[in-house]
Amino acid sequence: MSILINKDTKLIVQGITGRDGSFHASKMKEYGTNVVGGTSPGKAGQEVCGIPVFNTVKDAVAATGANASIIFVPAPFAKDAMLEAIDGGVKLVICITEGVPTLDAVAAQRYAKIKDVKVIGPNCPGLISPEESMAGIMPTNIFKKGHTGVISRSGTLTYEVVYNLTQAGLGQSTAVGVGGDPVVGLYFEELLRMFQDDPETDSIALIGEIGGDAEERAAKFIKEHVTKPV
């Protein structure tokens, strides 16, 4: 089992006709992710890598039954893209975009909580449930299916730790890059709780970064609520 995404996740790519969106849509599809559509205003009817393009998230969800969206749009448009996804009917939004203004991120995260939509990012590498689904920009070759959950503030440190876990024979249930910005969506405590409740995760790797007190708060949460090795 995994958390947040699995082989049944139906993903759409916002900004799919852009350079980054089209490249990573192709990579995610190659990995086996069920990429069911993409959005780009005014370009409905086109295809990218065999993936149908729609004008809006709402149109894409209505046509495909998508339940997750990943965002590859320039920073000035990221807030609107997140709000559109939240309103469009998906339950998980992954925002890869770097440089999103802090107040834009605050507005999007607040709205997501009101609508009960989970957000990962912005400024994150995404997440992967190995051999099931990948929504992000992660190097899939280093991951192996297993029972260790990974939570990280740092993209590159995620890859270093996962590489060594895999080399040691410790596969991963799900790995989540939460993002390095001051304001992001799901964070240590929420993800620790999900892995604690996941019967197929038997240990957790938590990767911090310089700045803030997130690691201290996570340590307190682990002491009080987590029984699995961290």
Automatic annotation (TrEMBL):
It comes from the Bacteria. Signal peptide: none annotated. Pfam families: CoA_binding, Ligase_CoA. Keywords: Ligase, Nucleotide-binding. InterPro entries: Citrt_syn/SCS-alpha_CS (IPR033847), CoA-bd (IPR003781), NAD(P)-bd_dom_sf (IPR036291), SUCC_ACL_C (IPR005811), Succinyl-CoA_synth-like (IPR016102). The keyword Membrane does not apply. The keyword Ligase applies. Belongs to the succinate/malate CoA ligase alpha subunit family. This is Succinyl-CoA synthetase subsunit alpha. It comes from Prevotella melaninogenica DNF00666. The lineage of its organism: Bacteria, Pseudomonadati, Bacteroidota, Bacteroidia, Bacteroidales.
